[in-house]
Amino acid sequence: MPRVLISDKLSPTAVQIFKDRGVEVDYLPDLGKDKDKLLEIIGNYDGLAIRSATKVTEKILAAATRLRVIGRAGIGVDNVDVPAATARGVIVMNTPFGNSITTAEHAVAMMFALARQIPEANASTHEGKWEKNRFMGVELTSKTLGIIGCGNIGSIVAERGVGLRMHVIAFDPFLSPERAIDLGVEKVELDELFRRADFITLHTPLTDKTRNIIDISALLKMKKGVRIINCARGGLIVEADLKAALDSGHVAGAALDVFEIEPATAHPLFGHPNVVATPHLGASTTEAQENVALQVAEQMSDYLMKGAVQNALNMPSISAEEAPRLTPFVKLAEQLGSFAGQLTETAIKGLRIEYEGDVAEMNTRALTSAALTGLLRPLLQTVNMVSAPAMAKERGIAVEEVRREAVGNHEALIRLTVITERQERGVAGTVFADGKPRIVEIKGIGLEAEFAPSMIYVTNEDKPGFIGRFAGIIGDAGINIATFNLGRLAAGADAICLVAVDGAVPDAALEAVKALPMVRQAKALAF
Ligand SMILES: NC(=O)c1ccc[n+]([C@@H]2O[C@H](COP(=O)([O-])OP(=O)(O)OC[C@H]3O[C@@H](n4cnc5c(N)ncnc54)[C@H](O)[C@@H]3O)[C@@H](O)[C@H]2O)c1
Ligand SMILES: O=C(O)[C@H](O)COP(=O)(O)O
Questions:
Q1: Non-local CB neighbours of 189 within 8 Å, separated by 6+ positions
Q2: CB of 280 closer than 6 angstroms to any ligand 2 atom
Q3: Are 22 and 3 in contact (CB under 8 A)?
Q4: What pLDDT digit, counting tens, does each position of 285-322 carry?
Q5: Does 283 contact ligand 2 (Cβ within 6 A)?
Q6: Which residue segments constitute the domains of the chain, with CATH numbers given?
Q7: What ipTM was estimated for this complex?
Q8: Which residues belong to any copy of the D-isomer specific 2-hydroxyacid dehydrogenase catalytic domain (predicted)?
Q9: Catalytic (active site) residue 267
Q10: Active site residue 272
Q11: pTM of the prediction?
């Protein structure tokens, strides 16, 4: 039974779903703050469910020897070392939509709070001061709202802004002109947004490009009296520069839900009269927390129990519906890759994968990952479908995918061609109605063989006497032949032989096969 650790505060719904799906679960919501304890126990788990408090570092991953999946109940995964997880073959998945509305609403609430100084007015009123003349606000209607990052959350904020009769402008290099029209926003460049906006709200991920996107030079480009909202990530704003601009009065107000260092218990901006601060509450509504807990537990259970992959950041998706049909082809692709990998002795320059017939309509990204896994495993024991594409890229292996209609006898065929300095080697296979993968072609020669744990592959000249002498050597070594599969280009031409045997092949027997006059190559293979 797979075992999952929940190390941050999640709705009890998550625990129940794991249990209902047959996954053992430990709920230790304070562990995110105790990295030593996490390090001590993480090796016992197949899955780790987190929010933003748990930091999944390289060190934690190194100790997580059983870990197969990290599930982020939320959006941002900047607390996870995703490249390190990928290199170790651990899937990282998030719940990209579960808290978007809630976070967009928080940004809008922050905008109102700034416009009408609601937190300050609230505190003053509770103190019995009745400072009616102190708090003079601004209207939102007809003001320009500048949105930086118009993805899931930014788009919802845009729609709300339009509803409030604001003029909404957006900077997002990936926002298409059509989508901008649909949302009713004007797409602009960043400098123009800085120049025109009365309110600026940030909704990008924290990346090398967005870090410090609001620094002193950006602030100086903004209108005097601008108000800034950040419900995305600390690190997008240079906090010291913002403080200087607030102190000078250039910026009229800032509303911050996120901080460069969290938890932020002491901060130079705390206590500033024009700053509204909340403790990373963007996703904190009952509805959003139910959504993300349910979704993360379902996604992680689906992966651990059925091999379905959804919302992974480092692996192609495989839906629960397609998993049963895809799984035998995943196995075929991996075994074909393994066949080619075990035969390849020089550096691999490229891999061409041809998908013919029905399989061309399937999830070929997942199949290509599986083929690369098999190909690289003889070199890299720990490679899996998550890490294989990154590892192939790191090694400069060019991957080409070709999809076409069925051309031969098979309704679905996968052909791998491995390109090395010396040669190109092709191998093709299919899955029969029994769900078992078969090799149906090697180096352009047709045959039909099931994969077996232990096999011998021989290339030879098609001459009389080979089969008898080969079988004699193998029999003398005390090895039982399970299946014997032959193919040849033409009578007397190149031939191949793929034999399944019961047990490992002794080196001496393999050397004796290689020494036969008609044999060109003999290799023991394991699947
Ligand atoms: N405060 C919270 O509790 C809370 C809750 C949820 C999400 N978030 C954060 O909100 C942010 C947005 O989340 P989302 O779900 O909308 O993400 P998203 O991926 O749907 O949207 C992000 C958008 O930013 C755009 N973008 C990327 N680089 C950019 C750049 N250099 N300049 C301008 N735009 C750029 C992308 O094109 C994309 O459209 C994330 O950082 C997420 O972690 C915070
Ligand atoms: O990226 C997110 O989903 C938000 O930052 C929410 O973080 P939280 O789950 O820690 O509240």
A1: 171
A2: yes
A3: no
A4: 999 999 999 999 999 999 999 988 999 988 888 888 88
A5: yes
A6: 3-97+286-306 (3.40.50.720), 100-277 (3.40.50.720), 316-438 (3.30.1330.90), 444-527 (3.30.70.260)
A7: 0.99
A8: 4-314
A9: no
A10: no
A11: 0.81
